[in-house]
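Hi L.,

As promised, Pancreatic lipase-related protein 2:
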Amino acid sequence: GLDPAGPYFEGTPPEVRLDPSDANFVDVIHSNAAHFPAVGLGMYNTTGHLDFYPNGGSVMPGCTDLIPEMKQSDFEVMIADATVIGVCHHSRSHELYFESILYPTGYLGYPCETYKSFEAGDCFPCPQEGCPMMGHYADRFPDKLKRVSQKYFLNTAADPPFATWRQKLLIKLSGVKKMKGDINLIFHDTEGNTKEYEMASGVLSQDQVYTKYLDVEINPKNTKKIEFLWSKTIFNLLWARLGAETVNITHGED
């Protein structure tokens, strides 16, 4: 199910919409779900054996078309012209499925109650039974028929191939007591590609442990090195003494 239709189907009986009884295995990607207060072309409720909600399931990064907030009556008037709203978000579902064939490890879905909890890191890493892969390889998940009504969340990149690998990064600083500036991480892969992410910013202290969840666009299996980039706000000779006492990186699967 690639972003199953929401208008006139959301909340209806299983007989008239997609549901787990329609096939031996029903695999669903929600990319433009109508989730209050936004109006979308897709369905938000779970409708399959495995229901994936990339980026929360309603708004896709990299899409510039707007999803307006409106009354149901307004939406009924506009739904005849689907080009007005949500087209990029709605069609991203099949693009994600296509890319998942080429990147079989880049779409790990984490079981979680809400997207907010997922963003906060409450559903990381994967539970003991593991996590399914969104898209083409979802049927390889051993418990694929036992998780009906469970939502699976993940984040994707804004540009093709959209794949990301969620990692939890923990850094404890050493050197100086306090320093104002930024810490960025630059991931390098074996093919020369790089991606930079902000780890911490502001007043940095060696007494604090900095933790962040990053959805990295560099495959951990191809990661050659991770560069720590210190950027000071005000020039200070003490900055040269600032370093990392401990660094810990946890991948989503292990």
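The two ends are 29 Å apart (CA to CA).

Thanks again for sending the construct details.

K.
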